[in-house]
Design goal:
Peroxisomal Thiolase, Chain A, domain 1, 19 strands, about 30% helix, two-stranded antiparallel ribbon, about 425 residues
């Protein structure tokens, strides 16, 4: 069992509440909105939903991958300011690729545990639609021939260390674990079906706040805001969630020459999520019942060409360090970057898939890189409350060859 990696544990870090925008398909309803404004919307919604005051925030930690607007350097600061956090409260950016949102929560937990803040605003935000078409070689002028501009969103999927795209790493796992196309499509059908059922039952209504055409004001500063694509007035649901049959998925051509397709890989979406992490004394002072206690987290490295297996050693190390076993974990939210990748993790651990992504995963809901980890953690904490279960883990594989995992406990079980 893996015991390496960077481990942190906390005695006094609590997930108090959170909210997220709907996740909208690439070039769809949210495509014109910068990740900063998506993050502001999620943050303001988390405060409104929780009843907690932004005046109490001691640190703002935001996660984002692609610099999808020219003011991206100021993204964490602007999210804090325009969501009402005091001007004196500092803000910083976190980037751990697909594990970014979980890393945000881990760094917030460090701040709470060390007494550096009583309340932290955690935000993950991503506009996949606004990924730039970029050139890194024209600053000193153009050489003979056409200048080289490339699609950042596509080119960023290549890990040059192993010569693999992220899709190739999923194909490598499919070969290693003898995962067939039919198995991956069946996995995707289950993800879609669970998400459709959760959406129909109103489960996601507990975390999603509708996005409208809205202005964000800040005294003495320029207004910001959200403007939906076209004539749409409101977006209230995840747009990629749909009924998807095995027959329909089987007709989609492979994207990387193997088992992965556009139908059984994570949906490319835009969106943001926010969480409020605080101390128990702060929660009690505000008569706020926490969702979950944040117990511990691990980040760990793996072979880049098998990057998708990252959740396995991360979860194993987390369990070893916290003294729990796999059977004691009631719910898992493992990011479905690719169907074969998530399935390989489940097979390697012998995971009961009735505990895995029970409300659907990223194949159905989508994977806005910087926001996913916060969505996973908020979803698993809410699911523990809904089902009356005790322990949950959120986890993700990470491009470049890493894994990350976070253990939470339903606050109802904490004495």
């Amino acid at each position: 069992m893996a015991t390496e990696g960077l481990f942190s544990s906390w005695n006094n870090s609590w997930l108090l509440d959170g909210a997220r925008t709907p996740f909208a398909d690439y070039t769809g309803a949210l495509s014109g909105i910068s990740p900063t404004d998506l993050g502001i919307k999620a943050a303001k919604s988390a405060f409104a939903k929780s009843g907690l005051s932004p005046d109490d925030v001691g640190t703002v930690i935001a996660g984002n991958m692609a610099q999808a607007s020219f003011d991206a350097y100021m993204l964490p600061r602007h999210i804090g300011l325009y969501s009402g956090v005091p001007q004196s409260t500092p803000a910083h950016m976190v980037q751990r690729v697909c594990g970014t949102g979980i890393e945000v929560i881990m760094q917030a937990s460090d701040a709470i545990e060390q007494g550096r803040a009583n309340l932290a605003l955690c935000v993950g935000t991503e506009s996949m639609s606004r990924n730039p078409v970029a050139s890194y070689s024209t600053r000193t002028g153009f050489r003979m021939g056409a200048p080289e501009f490339k699609d950042f969103l596509w080119e960023a999927l290549l890990d040059p260390s192993c010569g693999c795209t992220m899709g190739d790493t999923a194909e490598n796992l499919a070969k290693k674990y003898n995962i067939t196309r039919e198995m991956v499509d069946e996995f995707a059908v289950r993800s879609f079906a669970r998400a459709v059922a959760a959406q129909a039952a109103g489960y996601f209504d507990g975390e999603i706040v509708p996005v409208t055409n809205e202005t964000f004001e800040l005294a003495g500063h320029k207004n910001r805001g959200t403007k939906l694509h076209g004539k749409m007035a409101e977006l209230a649901v995840d747009t990629h969630v749909r009924v998807s049959t095995l027959e329909a998925l089987a007709k989609i051509r492979p994207a990387f020459g193997g088992v992965q397709t556009g139908g059984n890989s994570s949906a490319v979406v835009d969106g943001a999520a926010a969480a409020l992490v605080g101390s128990l004394s702060y929660a009690k002072s505000k008569n706020k019942a926490p969702l979950a206690r944040i117990i511990g987290g691990v980040s760990i490295g793996v072979e880049p060409k098998y990057m998708g297996i990252g959740p396995v050693p991360a979860i194993q190390a987390l369990l070893a360090r916290t003294g729990l076993n796999l059977d004691q974990i009631d719910r898992f939210e493992i990011n479905e970057a690719f169907g074969a990748q998530c399935l390989a993790c489940a097979l390697e651990m012998g995971l009961d898939q009735d505990k895995l992504n029970v409300n659907g995963g990223a194949v159905a809901i989508g994977h806005p890189l910087g926001a996913t980890g916060i969505r996973l953690t908020l979803t698993v904490a809410r699911e523990l409350k809904r089902s009356g279960k005790r322990y949950g883990i959120s986890s993700a594989c990470i491009g470049g060859g890493q894994g990350i995992a976070l253990l939470v406990e339903n606050a109802d079980f904490v004495k």
